[in-house]
Protein 1
Amino acid sequence: MSRFVDRVTIHAVAGNGGHGCSSVHREKFKPLGGPDGGNGGNGGDVILRVDPQVHTLLDFHFRPHARAQNGKPGAGSNRDGGHGETLEMPVPDGTVVLDENGRILADLVGEGATFVAASGGRGGLGNAALASKARKAPGFALLGEEGQTRELVLELKSVADVGLVGFPSAGKSSLVSVLSAAKPKIADYPFTTLAPNLGVVTAGASVFTVADVPGLIPGASQGRGLGLDFLRHLERCAVLAHVVDCATLEPGRDPISDIDALEAELAAYTPALSADHGLQDLADRPRVVILNKIDVPEAAELAEMVTPDLEARGWPVYAISAVGHVGLDTLRFALAQKVADHRAATPTPVARRAVIRPIAVDESGFTVSPDPAVPGGFIVRGTRPERWIKQTAFDNDEAVGYLADRLNRLGVEDELVKQGAVPGAPVTIGDVSFDWEPQLPSGDAVPVTGRGTDIRLDRTDRVGAADRKVARKARRHHADDGLGPVDGPDDWSGPDGDD
């Protein structure tokens, strides 16, 4: 038996990037031909794509875990690893993607609309890509990045033109079955539908969709019953139609009180898509009142009695019998006209363009703060430092040195000095903790300078070329005057004291 599932939680895991390769080119008579390790391939993404052939989230209910393929590692001879295959998952039109905190990430409407649920990790660089003038033959490569892992909530908000609202057993499912080819469950005993039913209605040249929304009772907007589970299916409806049971035998029930109770629930419910999509509140949508079951004589009399009061509110009223097929043609064409008026007044939606907000390349992107759990320790946080930690193979000393160079160029070491870090202070970046050893010479205290520089190298007693040239001219001048040779900076005596 088929099931209708309109809310699921999925666990999306993107593919990991492949590791870079550390390799040296070798051939006959040329054993050291330079680095030739290839880059690792990128991991595959997990993508949600709207498919018009999918109408429920049932597949995700039974298979909530989605994992994309990992990237392949690089190889020698400058061979890059293959990229992981992207995993595309079809979702029905009208699917809304939310994060674990309930924030809307995407509203997938229209065939082909896509959303990247999880991004694949980037492949690591091989040693050929890491070669530079200062590092001719790197003996290491970078590891691939891990793919993104996300917990997402998918909600299906039916894309319908007319939404039928009413108390249980008011005849909404019966009305959908006679207006369209849909075949919802119908019985001659009271029960409430547990899943929205969607039908396509044809009225002359007009075609529109109708959906019944079950489970609406007083208190539905606060979560009573099934109200919150199905009220969201009304968010996209252009016209709301009250289906009223005029033949009910329950005490205290009448068409006016039923409509007032449901109107209070619609006014109290705030659509989640209103702010982002410019949709009106449910209380401001066009209304139609459908008085059902007039094939019962008492119901026909009651419908005729309450019609003037309802029309006084400015709402069109239609008395029908879904079982007896009475008044259906008039209702069908009236709903088609309401939908046509809404479509004419609503501007044609423009396809949304992807907005890319790249991070500035010159942004420092890190913070250094004292570690509350370790006295004298520090924690470095930032996207790039944490990513570099994951890319480093700590069993390779050269790779660790390359990581230290990257952190120093980013300014992490300077910031640690400003924060008062001393040699041997425990520093934590991501999941790795180590004892910090700054690039300082041993012995006397020396002011901190950039990595690879030493202020003591600037202090030297060696005579420069300009001074030697001046001394040479002075000696020649003394020799011409007959004053004899003058010892200068560039005088040199051999091992035996001879020139």
Protein 2
Amino acid sequence: MALPGPLNRYLLLMAQEHLEFRLPEIKSLLSLFGGHFTSSQETYGKSPFWVLNIPSEDIARNLMKRTVCAKSIFELWGHGKSPEELYSSLKNYPVEKMVPFLHSDSTYKIKIHTFNKTLTQEEKVKRIDALEFLPFEGKVNLKKPQHIFSILEDYGLDPNCIPENPHNIYFGRWIADGQRELIESYSVKKRHFIGNTSMDAGLSFIMANHGKVKENDIVFDPFVGTGGLLVAAAHFGAYVYGTDIDYNTVHGLGKASRKNQKWRGPDENIRANLRQYGLEKYYLDVLVSDASKPSWRKGAYFDAIITDPPYGIRESTRRTGSQKEVPKGIEKCPESHVPVSLSYHLSDMFFDLLNFAAETLVVGGRLVYWLPVYTPEYTEEMVPWHPCLKLISNCEQKLSSHTSRRLITMEKVKTFENRDQYSHLLSDQFLPYQGHNSFREKYFSGVTKRIAKEEKSSQE
């Protein structure tokens, strides 16, 4: 049976990576452009074919100008579980909706896309010839057609068990492609200024999309590092700002992270990264500052806060301290000395971050951040909570067999009041997450066990 529903249906062809991140990205972008997610299926699992109801073609095009999780979108004209069902569905599609794209003055071509199977040229031609009943009056133009139509066949997800016939067949008019090329053009490998933990370009754009970053927004990263998240936000037209406790990173000083390069050059800095992509006009500033002690006046400044806090693995978790906080037995430094650096527990870091977001985001603004977790102990109750922030999505990226990080997206839903600052201490979710203060030890204990296991097996 063909899928029921309204006629403004679109078929999304999704990329097969970062599977958990796809649905929140599409939902966020539809919301940003005035649509909302409506579909016959709420979750698609691992399938690359999604059928959505979208209010207009303009919204569909805007969606594709932003998404890095989707490859293409099509106006869906027909769908079936077999060729016969597809043809029946196409015959029921209103002719008046087809005619603008099929008249005699137009040019077109038909493409075949198969997932998990390769067809011969003869098989492709046979499928195209079977569509002769459609009222095509224009001329075929394979090089520069005005309209492109596609037959898309789904042969399931198992490459070891490919069925003879497809599970689903779709036919539609191509509307637009997504922004997959950004992953290559903004690749960290080609970037001027990088660090040990510079964010992968694809994930940076996904984070900006989860945060609903748009033109003229002000986007802030309190753990800015080498500014990879600012680059993604600036690409979408946002003005960007950041802070970091590491003086050398902010000023582009010290040892280089690249192989065969000892020291950073004079023009290796965050501003230079934005300049590399023609985005320097969106650079506001980056300051050396401690995220645990924000120096901002009270007020809502930011449209989005997008960040990747340090986990204590490749970058240390630190905050500034004072002479009073120095442990006993350590000689006091002179008063002129810059405050010492103290350890910064993960639970404290994330609750400081949530409080900061609750205070400084505009209502409706989003906080997007990575939360490291020790997988055997993780439960959803461990995700930090705040009365001013609503959880939008929680997606997992595996780091190892026993650790992962979760991309948390939250939206500010009410104005911050002073009493909200310590409300997390009353929450049942505060104590569970404190167990992750030892995330670094658990991470390396797993690494140690794995190395020991490998050594043992090699000796046998």
Protein 3
Amino acid sequence: MFKWRSSQNHDTENDSVLRDAKVKELKVALGPLSQRDARFCTEGCLKRYLDARSWNVDKAKKMLEETLKWRATYKPEEIRWNEVAHEGETGKISRANFRDREGRTVLIMRPGKQNTTSPEGNIRHLVYMLENAILNLPEGQEQMCWLIDYTGFSMSTNVSVRTARDIINILQNHYPERLGVAFLYNPPRIFQAFWKVVKYFLDPKTFQKVKFVYPKNKESVELMTIYFDVENLPKEFGGNATLEYDHEDFSRMMTEDDAKSSKIWGFDDKLRHPANGHIINGHSKAEVAPEPLQVCN
């Protein structure tokens, strides 16, 4: 028995050494990066992309390079709450004030509170909330958790299949291994037809992270207690806490987080382009071209 444990520990150590070597290999393969790309490509980031591509360095490199191109164009770290606040007025996506038992940030989604019809607006709002969830992850934690409440859901409030596909593509291609688990709480029967189509866009690994939870099902209830403290969990998800979304309070929290994000990414919001909706003290400011970024190894 002791020999088996020793062997198991040795295998684990070997796996760790091999993975560390893969991370170093990927870092070298990427070559020199701009300051912002280097800030994004942390060790945890490299591990996530390697994990998403079964630790194949070439495939992980290709995937990561595609993400860097996407981020250079979409600029998700520069989206600010005042740009997407109208999408969040009903609280259709919010960050919970509690974490799961693994310390992961929790995003609460309520598709029944859909309030707009703009596909791009919905996607941009979700991307902002993903970036905010990542901003609030504790050190050493790379994943988040989703709680999806289907109260009030109808096909008229649901996003289109095309928008759902676009969202899934962004999540799987540019936020790999960020989702730890997603709980679909008490989805109605009419959701099943939508799910039958959407699930085929999910890769097998992501599919395994989606859990259907029904309050009258004993196993479902036990599953929620495994992941959450019921005293923190809102009643809408079978817990004892009260969930009330206050848009003004949430907006203040997001604005404070925007300031933290600006500091982390190394840019001043005051210099951002007014065409993106950024007004300083009632007056627009022209964008100031940044100095060329230094290349770092």
